[in-house]
Write a structure and sequence with these properties.
Aspartate Aminotransferase, domain 1, 422 residues, 4-stranded mixed beta sheet, Aspartate Aminotransferase, domain 2, single chain
């Protein structure tokens, strides 16, 4: 038995499923999770001493790689002064300024502790601002484990084939309206029927939780136009895409400006964080300037603020185009290798995100993503892991690259793919 297997057995006696976030359990690929002891740059080392090229990158935050020297130094300097005060600090102002300068839609921002907390607060704020109740979301999009947003969600809900809403009262779910991603007619129909009571549409502008699914041409612009027509809000969940697709996020990349934006992951530099930002007239509804209540003991904590601020200072001078080109080149070649083996593969990629779906049909929404051959993915995952390539253990997650990945990493990954037999 490996160290990881032994640790997993021990964890299962103490923690539900042996993990603190479901996809980590590796159930969908019929194996045990690797327990990680260390990360450096683009690599991980397991508790068994095996080294891996990491394409999970903590599910997205680590766009600079593991343990970037300046970020770690900033976090350590913060801890030396105190880990938490529950009081205002200068770093939260400076991080707010940096985000507002970068993200087109954000005029004011509230720091929170997770992406889930950001989306939960955004939905409440949209309802408070509009006086309306219903929220439109898209099947396969995951916006954290908020009760009303778990209906037909992606990420771990899709990976584990869960219905998504056990424990959630029907009275909450009835206010959530569902539509297929990229389906303009379905959205139009929902607004025709419920438009006077739709507070907001919440969407991943680049869907990353059913695997990577890109918005079709005109889709985001259509959502912007329709929500304006009905005086509803448009919420972009950029927890994954923020500061990853481009420095200004997907909204900068596609030039579509939402009313509210949810952020997380990268803005904390590897530490727990989330944020909700948007137009000043909307954000001023939040207490204490307004009556919509939201609070958090660790919100704006010094460690995450210092690490996030340092991360964004580094990123504003990084070449995102170069990262996108290297990612696209590597993933395209992976797709070619698998196609030459006679495998049906669709390659979706944008920025430093990608997903290989094992299906002959283009993947444009959750229904087409679900046609991926999960048995083929399982074999792919296991054989790549055996060769030191660390991928997400689900076909409904993304490949994440980083500025720390090298051409040598990519070539080793391609060589591993050439050796597999599916």
């Amino acid at each position: 038995m490996t160290n990881s297997e032994e640790l997993f057995s021990r964890a299962q006696r103490l923690i539900p499923g042996g993990v603190n976030s479901p996809v980590r359990a590796c159930q969908s690929v019929d194996t045990f999770p690797l327990f990680i002891s260390q990360g450096k740059g683009s690599h991980l080392i397991s508790e068994d001493g095996q080294e891996f090229i990491d394409y999970v990158m903590s599910w997205g935050p680590l766009i600079l790689g593991h343990c970037p020297e300046q970020v770690i130094k900033a976090a350590q300097g913060s801890i030396d002064k105190g880990s938490s005060f529950g009081a205002p600090i200068v770093w939260e102002i400076e991080l707010a300024e940096k985000i507002i300068q970068a993200v087109p839609s954000i005029e004011m921002i509230r720091m929170v502790n997770s992406g889930t907390e950001a989306t939960m607060s955004a939905v409440r704020l949209a309802r408070a601002f509009t006086g309306q109740n219903k929220i439109v979301k898209f099947t396969g999009c995951y916006h954290g484990h908020v009760d009303s947003l778990l209906a037909q969600a992606g990420s771990g809900v899709a990976t584990l084939s869960l219905p998504g809403t056990p424990g959630v009262p029907e009275d909450l779910v009835k206010h959530t309206l569902l539509a297929p991603y990229n389906d303009q007619q379905a959205i139009q129909d929902l607004f025709k029927e419920h438009g006077q009571d739709i507070a907001a549409v919440i969407v991943e502008p680049v869907a990353g939780n059913m695997g990577l699914v890109l918005p079709q041409e005109g889709f985001l612009q259509f959502l912007r136009s329709l929500t304006k027509e009905y005086s509803s809000l448009l919420i972009f969940d950029e927890v994954i895409s923020g500061f990853r697709i481009s420095y200004g996020g997907a909204q900068e990349y596609f030039n579509v400006i939402p009313d509210l934006t949810c952020l997380g992951k990268i803005i904390g530099g590897g530490f727990p964080v989330g944020a909700l930002g948007g137009k000043k007239k909307i954000m001023e509804q939040i207490a204490p300037s307004g009556s919509m209540y939201q609070a958090g003991t660790l919100a704006g904590n010094p460690v995450a603020m210092a690490a996030g601020l340092t991360t964004l200072k580094i990123l504003e001078n990084k070449d995102y185009n170069s990262l996108e080109l290297s990612t696209r080149s590597m993933v395209s070649e992976l797709s070619n290798i698998l196609n030459k083996k006679g495998l049906p593969v669709q390659c979706n990629t944008l920025g430093s995100l990608a997903t290989l779906f094992f299906t002959p049909e283009p993947v444009v929404d959750f229904a087409s993503a679900q046609k991926t051959d999960t048995n083929l993915f399982k074999k792919w995952y296991l054989q790549m892991r055996e060769q030191g390539i660390y991928l997400a253990p689900s076909n409904f997650e993304c490949i994440f690259t980083s500025f720390a990945h090298t051409e040598k990493d990519y070539e080793q990954t391609l060589e591993a793919a050439r050796r597999i037999s599916l």
